[in-house]
Amino acid sequence: MNSTDTEKLLDAYDRLSRTTGCMVNAAQQGDWERLVHLEKNCASLVAVLSALETEAALPRGLRARKHALVRKVLADDAAIRSITEPWVQQLGSMLDANRREQRLLKTYGPPPTS
């Protein structure tokens, strides 16, 4: 891997790390629209990384930097999941309740009005 490709690779990991950091912040603030936008950006960066990755080993110092960035991205991912998974479960419960209500209305009709 030449130095230009190495710079592009590490820059992409750096941008991914900054993006996942922003995602943690958006999740903590409950800013779901921003989180979704950042998630799309994150997916684009992962595609860029996939194209840039090679089997060639990086020099020791750069490899350590890459590993630190990957660890941060994984830690951010865990933090985001710890925030969003309870919310997703709650949303699933609400949707299930809505489906049950819709089935009851379809089967028995609306309740009589007084």
List its traits:
single chain, 114 residues, mainly alpha, Methane Monooxygenase Hydroxylase, Chain G, domain 1, 85% helix
Helices, strands, pairings?
Layout lengths: L2 H27 L2 H21 L7 H49 L6
Helix pairs in contact: 1-2, 1-3
Low-pLDDT regions: none
Our count of helices gives 3
Major beta sheet, specifics? Answer: none
CATH architecture: Up-down Bundle
What would you give as the CATH superfamily?
Flagellar protein flit
Radius of gyration over alpha carbons? 22 Å
Number of strands: 0
Distance between the termini: 77 Å
Overall average residue pLDDT: 89
CATH topology assignment: Methane Monooxygenase Hydroxylase, Chain G, domain 1
What's the number of structural domains? 1
CATH class: Mainly Alpha
Give the H and E element order: HHH
Helix proportion of residues, in percent? over 70%
Q: Which secondary-structure class do the elements indicate?
A: mainly alpha
Mass-distribution shape:
elongated
- Per DSSP, what share of the residues sits in E-state strands of 2 or more residues? under 5%
Question: What this model shows, in words?
Answer:
The structure is a single chain. The model has no long low-confidence stretch (mean pLDDT 89). This protein is mostly helical. It has 3 helices and no strands. It has a single domain, classed as Methane Monooxygenase Hydroxylase, Chain G, domain 1 (Up-down Bundle). 85% of the residues lie in helices and 0% in strands. Helix 1 runs antiparallel to helix 2 and helix 1 runs parallel beside helix 3. It is elongated, with a radius of gyration of 22 Å.
